[in-house]
Structures are given as C-alpha cells and as structure tokens.
Amino acid sequence: MSLKNYEFWFVVGSQFLYGQEVLDTVAARAAQMVEELNASGNLPCRLVYKCTVKTNDECTDIVRQANYEPTCAGVITWCHTFSPSKMWINGLSNLSKPYCHLATQYHREIPNEEIDMDFMNLNQAAHGDREHGFIGARLRMPRKVIAGHWQDESVQKRLGRWMRAAYGVMFSRSLKVMRFGDNMREVAVTEGDKVEVQAKLGWQVNTWPVGKLVETMQSISESEIDALIATYGSQYDFASDNMDCIRYQAREELAMKKMLDAEGCKAFSNTFQDLYGMKQLPGLASQHLMQLGYGYGGEGDWKVAAMTAILKAMSEGQTGGTTFMEDYTYHLANDAQYSLGAHMLEVCPSVANDRPRIEVHPLGIGDREPPARLVFEGHSGPAIVVSLIDMGGRLRLICQDINCVDPIMPMPNLPVARVMWQAKPDLATGIEAWITAGGAHHTVLSYDICAEQMRDWARMMDIEFVHITDDTTVASLEHDLFLSDLTWKLK
Ligand code: MN
Q: Which residues, 6 or more positions from 100, have their beta carbon under 8 angstroms from its beta carbon?
C-alpha cells in the first residue's frame, strides 16, 4: 500500500474538570488544527482528528481501533489541557502503531490583555504535555517528541518526515524479500539471522531457485520486450548498438518483476556466483527495477535489498533519489578527500545527475557475457548512507551523513554508474568510525531521507542506532558502542 493511502490519527488529551464548554472548544480547535495541517502541504499523509480522550475507556478504545485499522500508520497525541496520565496507561501499553507526541499549544503568543484564569484553564499544554510525556517515559514507549508551534513550517515538516519514518515501519512489517540464490560464498557481513529479522522488523526473507527465474525468462514474449525497450528509450540514451544484449536485460527484468509481483515481494537479491542458465548478470534490469521502487542487494545481500526498499518507500514522491551503493575506492589527496561509490553494475538511476546511458562492457569477474548497464554520475547534495548489520543477538543500524559532490574527474574509462562524496566528519575519521561500528561495504544511499528519520525508524523497530555526524569522534563513538553493547545484552 502506497504512502498516500495511509492516515495518522490525532488524539487529544483532556479531562472533565473544566466543564463541557472547554471540551467543546478543545475539540473544535483540534479539528481546525488538523484541517490547517492537512492544507499546509507539509504532511505526506492525511491527519485525522479522532477524539478528545477524557477517560481510561476512551483511550483504550481509540488505541484498539488504531491497532486494528490497516490504513492507520500511527497515532499523534497532544494535551490541550491537563490530562491525567493514569487514564492513558492501559491504552498506550497496548499501542502497536508508531506514536508521536506533538508538544504544541493552540495560541502562539501569550495574550497580554486576554490572559486570565479562564485562559489558563483552557490552555495548559505546557504542563499537560509534561504529564503526558512522563507516562510515555515511564512506560518506556518508543515515541517521537516534536515540540514547537503547530503552524511553524519547521514543526510541520518534522511531523511530515516522522510520518514517512512511521510509514517505513508499516512497510517493513509487511516486506517480502526474494532471494535468487544464496549469498556470495565466504562473505560475512551479508549474512544474518532471518528469523530475528522477521521477528524484529517483519521481513519475510525467502529464496527462489535461479532455475525458476530462467524458466520464467523463457516465457517472456518478444512483444513484452519491445514494450520495455521503448520504456528504456524514453528514459535513457542507447550508447550501444548491441540490442541483443539489451533485449536480454529486458527479458531478465520482465521475468524478475513477474516473479516478484506474483509473490508480493518489494526487494530482491542475487549473486554473480549463481547465474546458472543465465547469460548475463542483471545490470540494466536491476537498475530499472530499482527505479521502479524495488529494493536490490548484490552478492545475495538481502539486508541491504530490504533497506533499499524501505528507504525508497519512505521517500515516495520525493525526487532526490535512493539507491543501493557500495564504497569502492578513495581519493586520498592531501588537499581534498573523497569516497567513490559504485557497484559492479547496480546503482539506481534515481540518483543520476544527467540522462543515463545504456552501455555494454565486459564485467571483469565471473564467466558470463558482457552485460548491458546504465552509466551515469550521481548528483551533488547532502545525503546519508545506511547499513544494517547483524551483531549476533541484535541488529545495528549505522547511518553516516555525507555530502555528495559532482565527481571531480570524468573517469571516462569507468564503465559503471558512480557517486562521489565527502564523508562526515572527514574522510579518515568517517572511515575509522564506520569500521569501528562494523558498517558494511554495501549501503543504501539516499538524498531524500535524513538521519533523524532513520533514528526514528530504528527506535520504532527497537534496534540499535549509530549515527556518524560532523561531531563524531572515534573516542566518543567507542564509548557509545561500549555502553550500547552492555545495554543490548541486558534488554
Ligand atoms: Mn557488492
């Protein structure tokens, strides 16, 4: 289900103490706030005012409804007046949807002339939200707290970004990943506990034989291939006249898509070591599937495939781009240092700076025919790279802030798509921090999703989160990882 089909429920806290008139005003204002927030254009999903909660039963009832309503992706609460929190305990304890506490107030400024005891009774969010915050803390709830005036664009945008992270939770909980073959032999970081991942993140990760894919490829008609070639032509330039090779990629793409859609899978992995019966490693095929929103992971890396799908889902409707990525090589000049990211073939053209070219080159490894692939440069701008690793007993999500640049050289003989970036806080410290945390060589690179959203997502999924920022030092990171190890052993 698409991001746009989800809604979030606005639930306001109050109590009977102040009389019906105050409760009527609270309800009317809550409805007005929701209307304005929806009209702001800063929320990716519809916000729905559900009720003003005054009793334990009302709270329990609305949480039960939220849990069972498939289109509800989260609950956003706010206390216009004081709302004693013991009445929220039974309800909130059972909430299984993402939860955000919006600590705001209806009025922006204190009205000098108007303020009297009636005003004070009606507008008590400053302490109502603290009572509400206590019970969230006391119950150890994984919650987002956003404070500020509800009409501020920055507050609205943060709420919108959190909605996308919450949608990432909903998407994750129903995500299916198709593995074509196993992981690349002997590689450690692409392994992981698929039972733990399903219990924690909801992913259904299963394998399908490459032979089934080959069989499906044989069932693809020439006219289906013609149609996909026309689609390629509308989006990419043909820089090769080896149409047999390009048509073979189209056949691979159509077959993979058919199998993915038949099973409801939104992510897939494959490996160059298991292409039994296939003439080419899917390159262009995987790249175009990523552009359509499917997650991909090379060398059987189903974790990064799933994360790519999730970040793509969270960024639905945004245009910066999100891709499977791999750190390939460094530029370690004295005056300026960069990472060069690429892959054997599979970088998503959603991050391209210019119109991608379809080229055909030998692969250099493996024993298959030269595959067609898209070649392009990634665009400049702030981004993140994300890696999910299995620490044994827990999952760790590592996120690094980066700044992508226009590649500082043309690299005319490099036959793959490439993105160049500056790692935070600087390349050497960034590498040391990444390696200290155990981050993989495979990542998801996104220009659309920010670290705060990944932190929100990790909190909601109850997994460890490590953020490498401009302020990171290796000493502080080591300290954090040490404490984190202890914490997660106790959990
Ligand atoms: Mn790789």
A: 74, 75, 76, 77, 143, 144, 145, 146, 159, 162, 166
Determine contact, residues 346/290, Cβ cutoff 8 Å. Answer: yes
Q: Residue 45: is its pLDDT beyond 80? A: yes
Q: What is the pLDDT of residue 322?
A: 98
The pLDDT tens digits of the residues spanning 401-457 come to 999 999 999 999 999 999 999 999 999 999 999 999 999 999 999 999 999 999 999
Instruction: Answer yes or no: are the C-beta atoms of 453 and 313 closer than 8 Å.
Output: no
Is 235 within 8 Å of 374 (Cβ atoms)? no
CATH 3.40.50.10940 fits 3-173, yes or no: yes
Strands 237-238 and 357-360: parallel
The whole-model pTM stands at 0.98
Domain ranges of the chain: 3-173, 176-490
Ligand 1 centroid–CA 61 distance in Å is 49
Q: How far is the CA of 441 from the centre of ligand 1 (A)?
A: 7
The pair of structure tokens assigned to 255 is: 């077959």
Q: Does residue 98 have a cis peptide bond before it, meaning omega lies within 30 degrees of 0?
A: no
185 CA from centroid of ligand 1 (Å): 12
- pLDDT, mean over the chain: 97
Write out pLDDT tens, residues 84-119. 999 999 999 999 999 999 999 999 999 999 999 999
Question: 166: CA distance to ligand 1 center in Å?
Answer: 29
Q: How far is the CA of 197 from the centre of ligand 1 (A)?
A: 21
Q: What spacing in Å lies between the alpha carbon of 260 and ligand 1's midpoint?
A: 21
**CA 442 – ligand 1 centroid, Å:** 6
pLDDT exceeding 70 applies to what percent of the chain? 100
